[in-house]
Design brief:
By secondary structure, the chain is of the alpha+beta class. It has four helices and six strands; from the N terminus they run H-E-E-E-E-H-E-E-H-H.
């Protein structure tokens, strides 16, 4: 009777071990399957488009700008990507060399180099000295005269007309 008990206990032990091993294998299968799905989801959304080019929005740099009014962040950079999309971002000092930032502190026509990511572009901008009080007043008078239809000539011609008569 003792042998049968050992045999039965051994058989139960073997059967229990077999069930345990099946559970371990099933657990490992579920674990590795879950990790594989998580890994796939993590890499799936990281394929961000690459930058293929940059350009400065030409509407933001047309004409002359007063030196004391010009703000670099008013200039927009158009970023093109390899998937065909574009994004518009404001220019920052971090995108420009220290030499070009110094150029923007003085009046004149300047060619500025912009770097964003690994892309580079240039633009030309003209900065003028701020107007003094008399120049601001004369410009305001001229603009009012043009709006009223009283001044049919350009600003330079208008200034010249009364400067010539003052010198005569």
């Amino acid at each position: 009777m003792g042998i049968i008990m050992v045999y039965n206990v051994g058989e139960y032990y073997l059967e229990g071990m077999h069930v345990f091993m099946r559970k371990v294998v099933l657990f490992l299968f579920v674990l590795f399957s879950s990790l594989t799905l998580v890994a796939c989801n993590l890499t799936e959304g990281t394929d961000e488009p690459s930058i293929t080019g940059i350009s400065v929005n030409v509407d933001d740099i047309q004409g002359d700008f007063l030196l004391d009014v010009f703000d670099l962040s008013d200039v927009r950079l158009i970023v093109s990507y390899d998937d065909g999309s574009t994004a518009t971002i404001n220019l920052t000092e971090a995108m420009i060399s220290s030499q070009d930032i110094q150029r923007l502190d003085g009046a004149g026509t300047h060619t500025i180099t912009v770097t964003y990511g690994e892309q580079t572009t240039t633009f030309t901008i003209t900065l003028t000295e701020p107007l003094d009080g008399l120049a601001v007043t004369l410009l305001a008078i001229y603009e009012l005269g043009v709006e009223a239809g009283e001044i049919p000539v350009s600003y330079d011609e208008w200034i010249s007309s009364f400067m010539n008569s003052a010198l005569a």
